[in-house]
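dumping this here so i dont lose it
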């Protein structure tokens, strides 16, 4: 530690020689002592301004780094559940398919009720994390949110670029699309 301090002191001495004015050199050059001191003051002022500028730039860079770090942490926090949601979406699709089957006996109805409860629990958990379905049926087609897999002719009841049917639900996390909605669009 002491050696490092001595090395630093030596570097400072080497890069910034002692500001005292060599009087013999001043007398030999024909410049007055006052002029030499004024010249030295100007040099020191310029050096001070340069150091102040470096200090302010370093301080601004540190502030920028802190802001970037804070923004990155906020983004990570906001979208932390994205990967888990993408992995759960196929399971939700399967549960929805299971609910669409017809049952004829009490045992099947009980099983269907249990699947319904599990699905609702998953949907509730997703909503708490900011994950929601992308509205589609009857809406205007938006290529940022929807994926058209088929088109049908437009009619008087259904204007062009309107979603007629949803083939697979899409989901978004806040403003980020996790999976676009697969739709049939009227053209």
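and the seq i came up w/
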């Amino acid at each position: 530690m002491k050696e490092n301090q001595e090395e630093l002191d030596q570097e400072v001495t080497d890069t910034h020689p002692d500001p005292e004015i060599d009087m013999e050199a001043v007398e030999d050059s024909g410049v007055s002592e006052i002029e030499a001191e004024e010249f030295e003051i100007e040099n020191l002022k310029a050096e001070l301004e340069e150091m102040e500028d470096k200090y302010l730039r370093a301080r601004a860079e540190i502030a920028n780094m802190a802001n970037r770090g804070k923004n990155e942490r906020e983004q990570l926090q906001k979208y932390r559940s994205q990967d888990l949601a993408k992995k759960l979406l196929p399971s939700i699709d399967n549960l929805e398919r299971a609910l669409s089957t017809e049952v004829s006996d009490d045992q099947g109805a009980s099983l269907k009720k249990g699947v319904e409860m599990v699905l609702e629990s998953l949907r509730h958990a997703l909503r708490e994390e900011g994950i929601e379905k992308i509205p589609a049926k009857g809406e205007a087609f938006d290529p940022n949110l929807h994926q058209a897999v088929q088109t049908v002719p437009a009619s008087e009841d259904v204007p062009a670029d309107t979603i007629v049917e949803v083939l697979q639900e899409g989901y978004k996390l806040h403003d980020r699309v996790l999976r676009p909605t697969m739709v049939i669009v009227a053209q």
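The longest strand covers residues 146-152.
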